[in-house]
């Protein structure tokens, strides 16, 4: 191709490229968006007024739930799980912290025992002094629940009998007698399906009826919000 031909093509290209700046669109920059880290709910057990209570916390989504649970409890210690035992590498812990750690970690199917602070093979039976006679595990305090939901937990009550109520402003919205899997002195599990007639704040109440007159014994309450 001749030099004259090349020069002509170059000139055409320059003219086409200029073409009045309005024909050339500036590069488009996508607006940056910042999203909150994905979270997931996790149940932990905390000692409050001398007794373990179930609480729901939000933690960053992870498969390492044991470590996330310890962090939620304020425990800064590595944890590994092997052969059903959770090894928490912490040289010291108060009795309350041990109870919180043992009860929280043993909720996971892969953990049956906990080693911590020089104590080995701890189970829930080893921290029984911190467990109330009736422990509501689900729902946890402050939870939002649908109109029909499950109340579950453990209890050590006479003849394995307890009552589960839903109350609002002192009025009983629903009431049912529930039988735990075992009676005192053993600790059994219990579960009941509860239906709320209307939405709004309410209290889940569980107690053992007195053998003498049916009055509530060892009552436990959990505040919830019933969603529409």
What does this protein structure show overall?
This protein has 228 residues and is of the alpha+beta class. It has 2 domains: 92 residues, no CATH class; 93 residues, Immunoglobulin-like (Sandwich), CATH 2.60.40.650. Helix content is 15%, strand content 43%. The protein is built from 3 helices and 14 strands. A 5-stranded mixed beta sheet has the order 8-14-13-10-11, with no helix packed on it. The radius of gyration is 30 Å and the shape is globular. The N and C termini lie far apart (79 Å). The N terminus is likely disordered.
CATH class of the largest domain: Mainly Beta
Topology order in helix (H) and strand (E) letters: HEEHEEHEEEEEEEEEE
How big a fraction of the residues is strand? 35-45%
What do the pLDDT scores average to? 87
What is the CATH fold-level name of the largest domain? Immunoglobulin-like
- Percent helix: 10-25%
Distance between the termini: 79 Å
Q: How many β-strand runs?
A: 14
């Amino acid at each position: 191709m001749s030099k004259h031909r090349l020069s002509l093509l170059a000139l055409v290209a320059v003219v086409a490229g200029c073409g009045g700046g309005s024909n050339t669109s500036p590069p488009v920059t996508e607006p940056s968006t910042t999203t909150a880290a994905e979270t997931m709910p996790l149940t932990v057990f905390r000692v409050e007024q001398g007794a373990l209570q179930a609480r729901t916390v939000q933690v960053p989504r992870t498969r390492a739930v044991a470590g996330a649970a310890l962090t939620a409890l304020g425990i800064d210690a590595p944890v590994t799980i092997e052969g059903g035992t959770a090894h928490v590498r912490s040289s010291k812990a108060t009795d309350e912290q041990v109870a919180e750690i043992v009860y929280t970690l043993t909720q996971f199917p892969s953990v049956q025992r906990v080693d911590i602070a020089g104590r080995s093979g701890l189970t829930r039976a080893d921290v029984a002094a911190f467990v109330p006679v009736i422990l509501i595990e689900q729902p946890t305090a402050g939870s939002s629940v649908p109109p029909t939901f499950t109340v579950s937990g453990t209890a050590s009550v006479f003849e394995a009998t307890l009552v589960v109520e839903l109350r609002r402003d002192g009025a009983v919205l629903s009431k049912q007698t529930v039988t735990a899997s075992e009676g005192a002195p053993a600790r059994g599990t219990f579960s009941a399906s509860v239906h709320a007639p209307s939405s709004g704040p309410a209290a889940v109440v569980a107690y053992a009826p007195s053998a003498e007159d049916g009055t509530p014994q060892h009552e436990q309450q959990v505040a919830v919000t019933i969603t529409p």
